[in-house]
Amino acid sequence: MTRSLNEAHEATATLTSLLQTQELVRRIVARLLHVDVMAVDAAIDAGLAELGEHLRVDRAYVFVVNGSTMRNTHEGCASGIRPE
């Protein structure tokens, strides 16, 4: 019985975390849809920083893959972390 309760609690915590992440991504995308074209890059960087903070990582990146090359196009950093 205890094992079942622990598993249910863990499943609930995992689902809650996934739903919170999904809601954050939805809000970031909604903001990007309404941002001025001249501010898109900064808005993407800010959204990545917000997502990185939520996921408890120092940096979050967007990479564009073109054939055999890969290029970092956007980076969001946690407070106190210098961009690369």
Main attributes?
single chain, 84 residues, alpha+beta, 2 strands
Protein model, in words:
By secondary structure, the protein is α+β, with helices and mostly antiparallel strands. The chain has one domain (2-77). The chain is 57% helix and 20% strand. The protein has 2 helices and 2 strands; from the N terminus they run H-H-E-E. It has helices at 2-33, 40-55, and strands spanning 59-66, 69-77. Strands 1-2 form a two-stranded antiparallel ribbon. Strand 1 (59-66) and strand 2 (69-77) form a beta hairpin. Helix 1 packs antiparallel against helix 2 (40-55).
Helix-strand category? alpha+beta
Which whole number gives the mean pLDDT? 93
* Rg over C-alpha atoms, rounded to the nearest angstrom: 17 Å
- What is the approximate shape? elongated
First-residue to last-residue Cα separation: 50 Å
Helix content: 55-70%
Report strand order across the widest sheet.
1-2
Strand content: 15-25%
Order of helices and strands: HHEE
Number of structural domains: 1
Largest sheet: 2 strands, antiparallel
| Alpha plus pi helix count | 2
Number of strands: 2
Uncertain ranges: none
